[in-house]
Design brief:
Layout (H helix, E strand, L loop, with lengths): L32 E11 L2 E10 L3 E5 L9 E7 L7 E11 L3 E8 L2 H16 L2
Antiparallel strand pairs: 1-2, 1-4, 2-3, 3-6, 4-5, 5-6
Length: 128
């Protein structure tokens, strides 16, 4: 499967901002896209998995049973359909925590992974 076919797998749309009560520190500047990517993450002697439910160039929202704390850092892998290997975020920082989800900011990402992320976002944006 080629990356160009990614948009056909998901109904994508720019998500509306989540109410401020859920995410009190709203600083979003980049468009977010609704997704359903499997994700895995590890760090601070923890590892877990979840589902990436929205994504932007600067971060994403992950639904997971794993309990994390705001400010904690970990490595994250996003399993994007159409990519041969998971998209690797070398360091992600938890910005907010909800009951069954949390938001992360991409703190460190290799240039080749950033290029893949930009391609994924461009494809999702083209499918609006």
């Amino acid at each position: 499967m080629t990356l160009k076919k990614l948009s056909s797998l998901f109904k994508t749309e720019t998500s509306k901002p989540t109410p401020v009560a859920t995410q009190p520190d709203e600083r979003r500047v980049q468009p977010r896209f609704t997704t359903q990517f499997r994700s895995t993450f590890s760090g601070n002697k923890q590892e877990g998995q979840g589902r990436t439910v929205d994504i932007s160039a600067g971060g994403c929202k992950i639904e997971s049973d794993m309990k994390v704390e705001a400010g904690s850092k970990f490595e994250c892998r996003l399993h994007v359909p159409g990519l041969d290997w998971p998209l690797r975020i070398d360091e992600a920082t938890v910005r907010w925590v909800g009951a069954d989800s949390f938001g992360i900011a991409f703190s460190r990402i290799a240039p080749e992974e950033l290029a893949k992320l930009e391609t994924v976002l461009s494809d999702l944006d083209g499918d609006k």
